[in-house]
TrEMBL record:
It holds the Pfam family 23S_rRNA_IVP. PANTHER family: FOUR HELIX BUNDLE PROTEIN. Gene3D superfamilies: 23S rRNA-intervening sequence. It comes from Candidatus Taylorbacteria bacterium CG11_big_fil_rev_8_21_14_0_20_46_11. This is Four helix bundle protein. InterPro entries: 23S_rRNA-intervening_sequence, 23S_rRNA_IVS_sf.
Length: 124
């Protein structure tokens, strides 16, 4: 539920939607010796972005908030890695992987910007 907010700027909704899109994508990946490790890694990283963002939103301190956002940032980077690997293993899914990769990259940049802004305010 977005409560009238633009979903693009509602990070809780955006990260939840991203996790859902990762699950839907992962269901398309054929299970074989190569992909059997990639699928759970991709799903784990892709869905944890949203859960860690929810934890950050309920952080007990500023330090805790930055820590949780740092995890979101790391998980977004990990998703990019696994999407790249899946694209090699299953070339026919490369187009959809590019769309997801772009969103993972944008999320990574957003979390990085928030973290940098908070850290720069602490130095002032």
């Amino acid at each position: 539920m977005t409560d009238g907010k633009n979903p693009k700027y509602d990070l809780e909704e955006r990260t939840a939607s991203f996790g859902i899109n990762i699950i839907v994508y992962a269901k398309q990946i054929p299970h074989n010796l190569i992909t059997q490790r990639m699928i759970p890694q991709l799903i784990g990283a892709g869905t944890s972005i949203g859960s860690n963002y929810c934890e950050a939103d309920d952080a007990e301190s500023g330090k805790d908030f930055v820590h949780k956002l740092s995890i979101c940032k790391k998980e977004a980077r990990e998703v990019k890695h696994w999407l790249r690997m899946v694209s090699v293993a299953v070339p026919e899914l490369k187009g959809e992987a590019r769309v997801l990769w772009k969103e993972a990259n944008e999320l990574n940049l957003i979390f990085n910007a928030i973290i940098k802004k908070i850290k720069s305010k602490k130095r002032q």
